[in-house]
Amino acid sequence: MSFKLTREQEMIRLMAKEFAKKELEPYAHKMDKEGKFPEAVVKKMGSLGFMGMMVPYEYGGTGAGAVSYSLALQEIAYSCASTAVTMSVANLSTEPLLKFGNEEQKEKYLTPLASGEKLGAFAITEPGAGSDPGSMTVRAERKGSYYLLNGTKIFITHGNYADVINLVAKTNPEKGNKGLSAFIVEKGMSGFSVGKSEDKMGLRASNTVELILEDCKVPKENLLGSEGLGFKIAMTALDSGRIGIASQSVGIARACLDEATKYAKERKQFGKTISSFQAIQWMIADMATQIEAAYLLTLSAAEMKDSGLAFTREASMAKLFASETANNVAYKALQVHGGYGYIKEFKIERLYRDARATTIYEGTSEVQRIVIARETLKD
Ligand code: CAA
User: Fold this and answer.
1) For residue 71, is it left (φ>0), alpha (ψ between -120 and 50) or beta?
2) Which residue out of 125, 126, 232, 354 has the highest number of ligand 1 atoms within 8 Å of its CB and is therefore the one to mutate?
3) Taking the CB of residue 174, how many other CB atoms lie within 10 A of it?
4) How far is the CA of 235 from the centre of ligand 1 (A)?
5) Which of 55, 189, 207, 249 ranks highest by number of CB atoms within 10 Å?
6) For residue 232, how far is its CA from the centre of ligand 1 (angstroms)?
7) Where do the CATH 2.40.110.10 domains begin and end in the chain?
């Protein structure tokens, strides 16, 4: 892996940075306060190619690749972590279609998602199936030319705004993980509705909802791959998704560090700026070092994906380390702010809440350790 970005990667990073500074940063505080999903900005990001960065040009994407995607996502997260999770899940939702879709499915669903014409979501989680998707109960029964889906999915990112949802359901309850199948569900299909919106601690400008399936009629043509492939499809998509959450975490952590250094250079106590105290300097040094390590792990996983190598273990390492780093750094950065850090007026208060989700979704830190240990022992 080269440590130097290519000209194209650097240009994409700068473009994302400029976009985020202009379109997200000035509104992030207000959006968080109001808990409002920025529909117009998300649409604009789609038309600029931010939602199909790992999809080839022929299917409506930019073909920029995982490294460029990670760099762009870091910049978006730096300015607004909520919008970053929207972008991450939208890109994740293209993966099952790209890897397992047939030509008709790609044309009908992948192209509009990757080009930003439509927004995609990903649904596996249920009230009783979080870390263990194999225990899901949403049922899909074949009835001639269609499947009937019944049950409830929860914690679905931007489920209220998505046009297309990659949804995993059980076709064969006796077979555990091997009894799951993946479906392309469209908003508006009969029997599909959106349930309650979650009132979250952080990432408040991202939308998180319940999806309700009541005899939801999905044409058999919308089965991805074949019956029984659902678990594999979900895991493959999550490998890429974890690079996204690692990138989001790096962006949040950088924003925390910048807030902490800015504050430390302004705040005076005992007649000096607090940045002149070693206690603060050591916190800054630890934060900067951890962020650099998280950045390199994340780009290394992305580079492996771009090179066509297996990257399951590296994506989990990046997700584990970067999300734990975002939380450690947010904790220290708030500590540097003292009492002011606890006040909503200060940006660090939002960053601290936003960071918290990163060690939980798309596989908790504990799940990442399972993946890393299994892959390492296998080697
Ligand atoms: N790629 C391809 N195939 C994979 C795979 C991968 N990364 N991981 C596992 N598989 C395959 C295995 O090879 C195995 O296949 P065979 O049976 O043919 O050998 C099969 O899948 C079963 O694998 P495991 O035995 O490892 O399955 P498990 O039940 O022990 O689960 C787990 C392993 C790592 C805990 C997995 O269940 C997991 O990742 N859980 C976390 C789920 C998760 O991340 N949920 C997040 C929800 S989405 C979200 O948060 C999105 C959002 O909106 C932000």
Assistant:
1) alpha
2) 232
3) 7
4) 4
5) 249
6) 7
7) 120-228
User: Quick check: 97 and 164 in contact, CB under 8 A?
Assistant: no
CB 101 within 8 A of CB 224: yes
Instruction: Tell which residue, 78, 70, 43, has the closest CA to residue 163.
Output: 43
- Ligand 1 centre distance from Cα of residue 375 (Å): 12
232-378, CATH topology level: Butyryl-CoA Dehydrogenase, subunit A; domain 3 (1.20.140)
Tens digit of pLDDT for each residue in 174-219? 999 999 999 999 999 999 999 999 999 999 999 999 999 999 999 9
Q: For the whole prediction, is pTM greater than 0.85? A: yes
Residue 136 has pLDDT above 90, yes or no: yes
Active site residues: 362
Structure tokens at 365: 């830190």
- Which amino acid, 229? L
Nearest CA to ligand 1 atom 22: 177
SS3 call for 199: coil
Task: Find residue 223's DSSP bridge partners.
Answer: 183
Domain with CATH 1.20.140.10 in the chain: 232-378
Distance, CA of 320 to CA of 63 (rounded, Å): 27
Q: Does the CA dihedral 305-239-74-97 come out positive or negative?
A: positive
Which of 70, 51, 10 lies closest to 314, judged by CA?
Answer: 70
